[in-house]
Amino acid sequence: MFYDNEKQLRPESEYGVWADKFKGQIQIPQEIIDEFDKLMDELHWPYPPYDGVHEDMDAVIVDLLMGLGFTKGAKIYMEQPKWYA
Predict the structure, then answer these.
(1) C or N terminus of the chain, fewer CB within 10 Å?
(2) Can you tell me the distance from the alpha carbon of 34 to that of 40, in angstroms, rounded to the nearest whole number?
């Protein structure tokens, strides 16, 4: 599925919009954003995804969160059982 806008990217959950209150408060350098986007795109293509792609994408997302200081939350996320694991 391809998403046309930010709203479509968010899960159907009350927690899908919690970060709106922080918009504009955190400035991430464009270089980091571009590198993250490139890496996620490389993991996504070619389609269909290879076995283990979700785990690899999780690793990239968790590494980014930890680099931004969200270590505790990233650890909690990684300890949560995953349906694809």
Answers:
(1) N
(2) 10
